[in-house]
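Worked example 3. Consider a protein that binds zinc ion.
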Amino acid sequence: MNGMQLEIELLGTGDAFGSGGRLQTCFLLRTPAGPLLLDCGTSCLVALKARGEEPNEVGWALITHLHGDHFGGLPFLILDGQFRRRERPLIVAGPPGIGERVTAAMEILFPGSSQARRRFEVRFEELREGSAAAVGPALVRAFAVEHPSGAPAYALRLECAGRVLAYSGDTGWTESLVAAARGSDLFLCEAYTRDKRVPYHLDLRTLLDNRSRLDCRRLIVTHMGEDMLAGPDEDGYERASDGLVLRL
Ligand SMILES: [Zn+2]
Ligand SMILES: [Zn+2]
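Given these inputs, the predicted complex is written out as structure tokens:
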């Protein structure tokens, strides 16, 4: 990989409930500085190991919102690192409160694990809407979206290795998506249903109705539920699939 190419492996492209047998949301960016995760659903560690990736090399995890299918893999990633003598620091960046929520999840799932001695640092950074933050190799901007999850939920826009990647986890339609996608090489976006409106989620129809307003070179939909997966392809977008590798 040269410095001006960004490779993205879609490790998990499913919804929260295993529709289509897909893994939960998790994308791996191969950056010049090392691997970065974008969302970290509970199946993250399974996905990494199934694809021959070394979880201990992941330097950063960027999280859109604090639902289990987007951040629930972190306790497993951290604990696996502890048991396998990870040394590389892990930077976790996401909505305000992310440190407390990950710590609480660790204590529920593996009591005592959040306080265990580790050889590596886990550092939490809170992303604020509207301001750009440098997270390792990426410049990250957070856009508030509509998806209650006990903390602000974001769409994220990353500038990395000379490319722009926009990504929305879960949300009802909001104009924030237009802003987040503007000028991007790729916009990865949820399409949970085909036509049915589900509160705080996005349907393909609404997304395509706004397609001309989304200034992105490619639109790839992910986080698909059963009816989206069962239906035919249409023009105007591509579908994500587990294991798909993209080069921007
Ligand atoms: Zn989700
Ligand atoms: Zn969610």
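Take a moment to read the result before moving on. Residues 65, 67, 70, 147, 149, 170 surround zinc ion (ligand 2) (CB under 6 Å). The radius of gyration is 17 Å.
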